[in-house]
C-alpha cells in the first residue's frame, strides 16, 4: 500500500470509530498496526483496536491485541493499555498475563500462579448495566473482579456471592459516612452463585430484631436484607453522586430478601422467631 492508501485506511478506521462501528474500526486499526508495527503510532493503533473489541465484548480479540498494545506502553505509568489487558486476561483466565498487566499499570498484586484472590476493598458495582442496572456493594478480589456482598432483588436476576468482572471507568459515586466510592459497571458474570434469592415476609417489632435476622444468616455464610434498603433511582441519578446510609433497618411488617439454600430457610427463620416469639414472625417464602 502507498502512503496515500495508508492515510485512507486510517481515515476510514477513525470514521468507523466515530460512528461506533466497533467491528470495522477494530478490523481496520489492526490491519494498520500489522502493516506498520514499528511506526511511532503503532501502540495507539493496537490500543484503539483492542478497545474496539472490548466494546464488542470480544474478549479473545481484546486480549490478543491488548498484548500488542501493552508491549508498546510504558510500565509503571498507569497506561490504560495495561488496564484493558488486565481485564481481558482476567476474563480469559490467563492469570500470569493478568498479574503482569496489573503490575505494568502500577498496581501491587500477590504472587502466585493461579487465580488472583486478594483484598482490594469494597466498591459499589452496577449489575447488568444494560438492563436492570441495580447497584450493590461488592468485595474486590483483584483490580477487575468483585464478589457481591448484598442480596440483589429478585428482579435483578443476580445473586448474593456471585463474582463479576467490572470495568475500570467509574460511572457514578456513592457517599457513605463522608467517604466517596466510585461505581463500576459490570462487564460480565465471572462465577455464578448457588444461593437463590428467597423473599419472606417478616414482622419484627424493632430494627434490632431485623439486625438479629441478618446476623443469624451471616453466621451461616448466607445473607438477609430488608427490601426497605432498596432505593429506586432513574439512570441519570444512579450515574450521579448518591448519598447512602449505612443502617436502614426498620421495625414492622416488611419483605426481606434472603440468600440461602431453600431447605435451610425455614429452620433459620424459626430459630430467629424462637429467640423472641412475642416480637418476631414470618410467612410467605418465594424463591427466584
Structure summarized in a few sentences:
With 288 residues, this protein is α+β, with helices and mostly antiparallel strands.
Write the layout of secondary structure elements.
Blueprint: H1 3-18, H2 22-35, H3 42-55, H4 59-71, H5 80-91, H6 95-105, E1 122-126, E2 135-142, E3 145-148, E4 163-176, E5 179-191, E6 197-204, H7 207-219, E7 223-226, H8 235-238, E8 241-244, E9 252-259, H9 262-274, E10 280-287
Parallel strand pairs: 1-5, 4-8
Antiparallel strand pairs: 1-2, 2-3, 3-4, 4-5, 6-9, 6-10, 7-9
Helix pairs in contact: 1-2, 2-3, 3-4, 4-5, 5-6
| Total beta strand runs | 10
Q: Which segments are poorly predicted (pLDDT under 50) over 5 or more consecutive residues? A: none
SSE-based structural type: alpha+beta
What radius of gyration results from the CA coordinates? 23 Å
Indicate the mean pLDDT: 93
Query: CATH homologous superfamily name of the largest domain?
Result: Tetratricopeptide repeat domain
CATH topology of the largest domain: Serine Threonine Protein Phosphatase 5, Tetratricopeptide repeat
At CATH's second level, what is the architecture of the largest domain? Alpha Horseshoe
Instruction: Supply the CATH class of the largest domain.
Output: Mainly Alpha
- Dominant shape: elongated
How far is the first residue's CA from the last residue's CA? 58 Å
What kind of oligomer do you see?
single chain
Task: Tally the structural domains.
Answer: 3
Largest sheet: 5 strands, mixed, barrel
**Strand numbers in spatial order across the main sheet:** 1-2-3-4-5
Work out the strand percent: 25-35%
SSE succession: HHHHHHEEEEEEHEHEEHE
Helical element count? Answer: 9
Amino acid at each position: 500500500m502507498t502512503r496515500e492508501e495508508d492515510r485512507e485506511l486510517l481515515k476510514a478506521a477513525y470514521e468507523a470509530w466515530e460512528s461506533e462501528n466497533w467491528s470495522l474500526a477494530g478490523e481496520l486499526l489492526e490491519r494498520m498496526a500489522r502493516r506498520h508495527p514499528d511506526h511511532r503510532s503503532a501502540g495507539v493503533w493496537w490500543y484503539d483496536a483492542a478497545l474496539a473489541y472490548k466494546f464488542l465484548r470480544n474478549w479473545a480479540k481484546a486480549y490478543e491485541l491488548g498484548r500488542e498494545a501493552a508491549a508498546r506502553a510504558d510500565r509503571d505509568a498507569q497506561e490504560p493499555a495495561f488496564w484493558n489487558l488486565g481485564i481481558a486476561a482476567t476474563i480469559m483466565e490467563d492469570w500470569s498475563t493478568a498479574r503482569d498487566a496489573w503490575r505494568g499499570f502500577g498496581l501491587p498484586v500477590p504472587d502466585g500462579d493461579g487465580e488472583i484472590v486478594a483484598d482490594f476493598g469494597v466498591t459499589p458495582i452496577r449489575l447488568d448495566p444494560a438492563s436492570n442496572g441495580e447497584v450493590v456493594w461488592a468485595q474486590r478480589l483483584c483490580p477487575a473482579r468483585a464478589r457481591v456482598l448484598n442480596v440483589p432483588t429478585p428482579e435483578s436476576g443476580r445473586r448474593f456471592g456471585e463474582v463479576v468482572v467490572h470495568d475500570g471507568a467509574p460511572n457514578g459515586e456513592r457517599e457513605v459516612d463522608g467517604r466517596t466510592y466510585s461505581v463500576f459497571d459490570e462487564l460480565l458474570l465471572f462465577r455464578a452463585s448457588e444461593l437463590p434469592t428467597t423473599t419472606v415476609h417478616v414482622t419484627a417489632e424493632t430494627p434490632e430484631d431485623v439486625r438479629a435476622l441478618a446476623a443469624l444468616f451471616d453466621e451461616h455464610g448466607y445473607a438477609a436484607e430488608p427490601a426497605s434498603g432498596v432505593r429506586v433511582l432513574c439512570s441519570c441519578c444512579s450515574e450521579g453522586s448518591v448519598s447512602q446510609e449505612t443502617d436502614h433497618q426498620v421495625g414492622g411488617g416488611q419483605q426481606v430478601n434472603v440468600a440461602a439454600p431453600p431447605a435451610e430457610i425455614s429452620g433459620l427463620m424459626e430459630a430467629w422467631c424462637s429467640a423472641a416469639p412475642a416480637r418476631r414472625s414470618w410467612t410467605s417464602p418465594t424463591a427466584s
